[in-house]
Backbone:
C-alpha cells in the first residue's frame, strides 16, 4: 500500500502519536457508557419519559453504527490527519451541544451528530497506529490502544455517576471538550498526513444514509407502539418507511454502488455470518442490561448517581476478566467451545436477573447474576472477532472486523427499543390494575420491576437463540488463517466492551 507522507509537520515521538490515537478512542468509547447512569437525571430535566430517554442512547449508537464503515474508508481515502481532525471537531462540537441541550429534541440531535463524529474518528485512530508503528512496536501499540478502548467502556458508568452526583449530568458531555481541543491542537501540530495513494474507491454515503435511516425508522416504529397500537397508521407508516429504506439499501449495495459499504460477497464466509448473528443477539441483550440496571438501581433501590456508578464497577471487572481469560483459552480450545460456554453463562445470568423483585438487594440478588452476564460477554468478544476474520482474505479483514462492530451497535439499538417497549407495556399493565381498583400495593414500583424482569427474561431467550446459532459454527474455526489480520481481531475484541 503506497502511503503519502509529506514532511510538513514537526517530528513527534511515538508516545505522542500513540496518545493522540488513544485519547480520541477513549472519548468515543466512553461516550457510550458514561451516559447510562446520568440517563434518569437527563430524562427528568429534559421532560423525557423512561421510554423516550432511550433515544439519548439510540441516537448516538445508530449514527455511529451506520457511518462506522464509511469512516474507516474515509481515513484511507482522504488521509488520517484530515479525517482525525474532522472527527474530533464534529465530536467535540456535538458534545458542547449536548451539554447545553434544553429539550429532548436538542439532545437527541446533538447525540446523533456526536455519533457521526465518533464514526469518523474511531477508525482514524486505528489507522494512525497501523501507519505509524511497524515491526515489534506495532503489537505493543495495538495493545495500548485496545487497553484504552476497554478502559473507556469499563470506567464510563463510574465516571458518569461521579460527574452527575458531584457536579451535574451536563458534565458527562462537557468533559469531552478540553480533551477534544487538546487532541486536535496536538494532531494539527505533530501528526503527519498519510493516506493510501492507491485508493480509488468512492465513499458510499448513499448506503450509509439508507441503512441508518431505515434502522432509525424501524426503531422509532417499535417505540411508537408505547403510545399507539401495532396496527395504528402511525406505527405502520414508520415500518413502511423502514422497509422501503432497508430494501433500497440492499438493492443499492448489491446492484448500484460501485464501491459498496458492505460487499455482500463477504458473507459467503460461514464463520463471519454466524459471528455477526451471535454478536447482534448477545451484544444487544448485554447493551440493554446496563440500561435497565441503571433505572433499577436509581428508581427501585434508591441509589444516587454516584452509588449507581460504583455499583457497575464489578460488572466492568467481569468483562475484563472474561476477555482476558478468553484470549488465553482461544488458542487452546478454539472458538466454538468458548462461544457455547459464553452463551450458556449469559442465558443463565439473564434468567437469574429476571427473578428480581421490588425487595431485591444489590449484594444478595443483583451482583452475582449481573457479574455472570458481564463475564460471559467478556468471554464472547475475542472468539467472535476471531471467527469473523478467520476465513476471509487479508484485504477484507478490516472490513470483517468493522461489520462485526457494526452488528454489535445495531443489535444494541434494536434490543434497547424492543425490550424497552416490552418493559413499558408490562409497567402500564400494573398502572391499569391500580386504576381499576385492584389491590395492587405500590403499583408503580411493582410495574417498573415487572417490566425490567420481563426484559431480562427476553434477554435470556435472545442469548439462548445465540447459543443455538453458535452451533452452526464450523468446529475447526479456532486459529487465524494465514489470510486473517490479527490486529483487527485484537482491536475489535477490545472495543467490544463499550
Residues:
Amino acid at each position: 500500500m503506497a502511503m503519502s507522507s509529506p514532511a510538513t509537520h514537526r517530528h513527534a515521538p511515538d508516545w505522542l502519536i500513540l496518545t493522540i490515537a488513544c485519547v480520541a478512542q477513549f472519548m468515543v468509547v466512553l461516550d457510550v457508557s458514561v451516559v447510562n447512569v446520568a440517563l434518569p437525571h437527563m430524562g427528568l430535566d429534559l421532560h423525557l419519559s423512561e421510554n423516550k430517554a432511550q433515544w439519548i442512547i439510540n441516537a448516538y449508537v445508530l449514527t455511529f453504527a451506520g457511518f462506522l464503515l464509511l469512516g474507516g474508508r474515509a481515513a484511507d481515502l482522504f488521509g488520517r490527519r484530515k479525517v482525525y481532525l474532522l472527527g474530533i471537531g464534529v465530536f467535540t462540537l456535538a458534545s458542547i451541544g449536548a451539554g447545553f441541550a434544553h429539550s429532548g429534541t436538542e439532545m437527541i440531535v446533538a447525540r446523533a451528530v456526536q455519533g457521526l463524529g465518533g464514526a469518523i474518528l474511531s477508525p482514524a485512530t486505528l489507522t494512525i497506529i497501523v501507519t505509524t508503528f511497524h515491526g515489534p512496536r506495532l503489537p505493543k501499540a495495538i495493545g495500548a490502544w485496545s487497553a484504552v478502548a476497554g478502559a473507556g467502556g469499563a470506567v464510563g458508568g463510574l465516571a458518569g455517576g461521579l460527574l452527575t452526583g458531584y457536579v451535574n449530568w451536563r458534565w458527562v458531555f462537557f468533559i469531552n471538550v478540553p480533551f477534544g481541543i487538546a487532541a486536535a491542537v496536538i494532531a494539527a501540530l505533530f501528526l503527519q498526513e498519510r493516506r493510501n495513494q492507491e485508493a480509488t474507491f468512492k465513499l458510499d454515503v448513499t448506503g450509509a444514509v439508507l441503512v441508518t435511516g431505515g434502522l432509525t425508522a424501524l426503531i422509532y416504529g417499535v417505540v411508537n407502539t408505547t403510545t399507539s397500537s401495532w396496527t395504528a397508521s402511525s406505527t405502520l407508516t414508520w415500518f413502511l418507511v423502514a422497509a422501503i429504506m432497508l430494501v433500497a439499501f440492499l438493492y443499492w449495495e448489491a446492484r448500484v454502488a460501485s464501491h459498496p459499504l458492505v460487499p455482500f460477497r463477504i458473507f459467503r464466509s460461514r464463520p463471519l455470518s454466524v459471528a455477526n448473528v451471535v454478536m447482534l443477539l448477545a451484544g444487544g441483550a448485554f447493551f440493554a442490561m446496563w440500561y435497565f440496571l441503571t433505572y433499577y438501581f436509581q428508581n427501585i433501590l434508591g441509589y444516587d448517581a454516584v452509588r449507581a456508578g460504583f455499583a457497575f464497577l464489578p460488572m466492568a471487572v467481569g468483562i475484563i476478566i472474561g476477555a482476558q481469560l478468553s484470549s488465553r483459552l482461544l488458542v487452546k480450545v478454539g472458538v466454538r467451545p468458548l462461544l457455547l460456554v459464553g452463551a450458556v453463562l449469559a442465558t443463565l445470568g439473564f434468567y437469574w436477573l429476571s427473578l428480581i423483585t421490588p425487595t431485591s438487594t444489590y449484594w444478595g440478588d443483583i451482583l452475582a447474576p449481573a457479574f455472570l452476564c458481564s463475564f460471559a460477554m467478556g468471554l464472547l468478544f475475542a472468539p467472535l472477532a476471531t471467527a469473523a476474520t478467520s476465513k476471509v482474505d487479508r484485504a477484507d479483514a478490516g472490513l470483517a472486523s468493522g461489520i462485526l462492530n457494526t452488528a454489535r451497535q445495531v443489535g444494541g439499538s434494536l434490543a434497547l427499543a424492543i425490550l424497552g417497549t416490552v418493559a413499558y407495556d408490562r409497567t402500564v399493565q400494573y398502572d391499569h390494575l391500580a386504576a381499576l381498583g385492584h389491590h395492587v400495593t405500590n403499583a408503580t414500583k411493582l410495574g417498573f420491576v415487572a417490566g425490567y424482569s420481563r426484559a431480562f427474561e427476553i434477554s435470556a431467550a435472545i442469548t439462548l437463540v445465540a447459543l443455538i446459532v453458535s452451533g452452526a459454527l464450523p468446529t475447526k474455526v479456532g486459529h487465524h488463517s494465514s489470510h486473517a489480520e490479527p490486529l483487527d481481531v485484537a482491536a475489535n475484541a477490545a472495543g467490544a466492551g463499550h
